[in-house]
Design a protein that fits this description.
The protein is built from twelve helices and five strands. The protein has 268 residues and is α/β, with parallel strands linked by helices. Strands 2-1-3-4-5 form a five-stranded mixed sheet. Helix 5 crosses helix 6 and helix 8 (146-163) packs antiparallel against helix 10 (205-221). Bound molecules: zinc ion.
């Protein structure tokens, strides 16, 4: 028997032991799951083996609906991701969608450095778009922190992509209560960081996005220093504020493609 077959046998052995232990601890656990899954959460994360949604959050089978791909990207035309989001929102009625990146993400690193890795180059091209959009900021940061800053910027970008999807626009138009969050996970310490990028369709998306980008820039350029912004209002105030008047002043931070508040606010 080869080593690889030994390994697979181990997986089945562990599975049998786990199922038996679960049934001993909580009789009827599996038969209860057969009837229905009622997760409150949807997790959109990286495929990276070090970032398992259930274990990180202490959630059991049936408690989190998961979609993962390389570098946690949500592309407007990706029927796989969109179908998962639609099922989660419209059928499972999840209350929270977490877009979860992780520090040191290999996909983000390849995108940042322009490393060719094969077919996936076309997939992570989406992250290179994020990199290019924030190029001035990224170039201004110390080289060692650029990957992790881009990991967070990528999360912010993908939160927006979820928020402007037809699934979310329709859900909020119906008055459905579902929030999108942006998190980043530390493979090095096992801790989740909340990027305070929560979107529920009631506040201007572009203001939330810009405030998040501002925090990310501050965090990585001035680590440890409190975020004080003058003469403009504090970032938190900006999130609460009504949509700003259109301005002709160009901004490198604002993605030209994502929707405005009008697209994501629920119908009055
Ligand atoms: Zn990754």
């Amino acid at each position: 028997m080869s080593d690889s077959e030994d390994t697979l046998d181990d997986l089945f052995a562990h599975n049998r032991a786990w199922a038996a232990q679960m049934e001993r601890d909580r009789p009827g656990f599996f038969t209860g799951l057969v009837k229905q899954q009622t997760p409150r959460y949807m997790w959109i994360g990286c495929s990276d083996s070090r970032v398992p949604a259930n274990q990180i959050t202490g959630l059991e089978p049936g408690e989190v609906f998961v979609h993962r791909n390389v570098a946690n990207i949500v592309v407007h035309s990706d029927l796989n991701a969109l179908s998962a989001i639609q099922f989660a929102v419209e059928h499972l009625k999840v209350e929270h969608i977490m877009v979860v990146g992780h520090y040191g993400c290999a996909g983000v690193k390849a995108a940042l450095n322009g490393t060719r890795i094969g077919l996936a180059d076309n997939w992570i091209r989406h992250i290179q778009d994020v990199r290019d959009r924030h190029g001035v900021m990224i170039d201004s940061l110390p080289e060692p922190v650029r990957v992790d800053a881009l990991c967070e910027l990528n999360v912010a970008e993908q939160v927006v992509n979820v928020a402007v999807s037809t699934v979310m626009v329709d859900a909020w138009s119906r008055g459905q209560k579902v929030r999108i969050h942006g998190w980043c996970y530390g493979v090095h310490d096992g801790l989740l960081q909340d990027l305070r990028l929560s979107v529920d369709g009631s506040k201007p998306l572009d203001a939330i996005y810009k405030a998040a980008v501002q925090r990310i820039r501050h965090k990585w350029s001035k680590p440890g220093e409190p975020l004080v912004i003058t003469p403009r209002p504090r970032a938190e105030a900006a999130v609460q504020a009504p949509p700003p008047a259109p301005t002709s002043q160009p901004t490198l931070e604002a993605p030209a493609a994502f929707g405005t508040a009008d697209h994501v606010s629920p119908a009055p």
